[in-house]
Amino acid sequence: MCDGAPRGGTSLDAVAAQIDWAELDRLLAGISSSAKGELGWPPLALFRALLLATWHDLSDVRLAEALDDRASFRRFCGFAAHEPTPERTAFVRFRAELVRRVLDRALFEAVTRQLDALGVVVRTGTLVDATLLPSASIRVDGEARWAGHRRRKPVHGYKAHVATDQDAGLIRGVEITTANVHDAAELDAILPDAPGETYGDSAYQGSRSERIIRARGGIPRVVHTSTWGGPEALEQLQAHNADVRRVRCRIEKVFGTCKRSYGLRRMRWLGLAKAGLQVRLAAMAYNLRRSLGLLTAMVA
Fold it and tell me: Do the strands 219-222 and 197-200 form a parallel or antiparallel pair, or are they unpaired?
């Protein structure tokens, strides 16, 4: 897997070639990011700029500077060499419109569907898990909530509930809640159809999760914490849990990459809706880069 962000123009061109941007442009139609009396920037160019910001972990100010300075960034967004580029406030207004129109979900689903059509994934199973994401501000973010953790300090913020392919590592489903929501609460929302063997930690044990997985055509493969029947049954349980953990732990690499390289160490903006936008932007950026790596490996 290519864990880092795209760095060169050639890499950005290859990422861009994976997607039918016209479909995304139609989803963004009608959005204006201009202040009163100003000309509006093309919404697709702004969306592609947000992907650049996610890959390179850039603030709005740094993104505006990079667009003004870097030829590969201009080309990726569709700006000519000497054409003006957006200021910081254009990105602020554009994100507000994405949140207001709840477009982050539609954009994620469109990108995921297109990447799926490339045929880079051989379905073998699904991994499910959730990860805590600290809020942008403990004092100011009134929508975030506290959640305890067995081995680390409590976190004030949100939780990303994620399903990935077992082998390809692409993010198939993602939902965002406040941090105090149980890991398995969004299983029905994130689990794809025909998930195959579905791996999860002990948070996904129980009849409710099992019903959801089987209803989608999957086979539950989750960690269990207790058994009856003496030493032999305990030995079988420990062997089962070891097998599940060996596969399930691969999703931790996805979380690590998104936090280390795609800006999810903490939330940039306040509120649940904006947290959802940030997480889905990271998921799209990750999937685009990951798919490029898979395609390159297939050709080699």
Answer: parallel
Structurally, the chain folds into a number of domains equal to 2
| 126 and 91 in a common domain | no
Which residues, in sequence order, are CB contacts of 286 under 8 Å at separation 6+?
171, 254, 257, 258, 262
Kindly give the residue spans of alpha helices, DSSP state H, lying in 21-163.
21-28, 43-56, 60-69, 71-77, 88-100, 103-117
H/E stretch holding 162 reads strand 155-165
- Supply the range of the domain harboring residue 145: 122-276
- Residue pLDDT, tens place only, 115-154: 999 988 777 899 999 999 999 999 999 999 999 877 789 9
- Please check whether residue 114 lies inside any domain of the structure: no
Instruction: Tell whether 291 is covered by a domain.
Output: no
- Alpha-carbon gap, residue 189 to 212, rounded angstroms: 10
* Angle CA 220–223–225, to nearest 5: 130
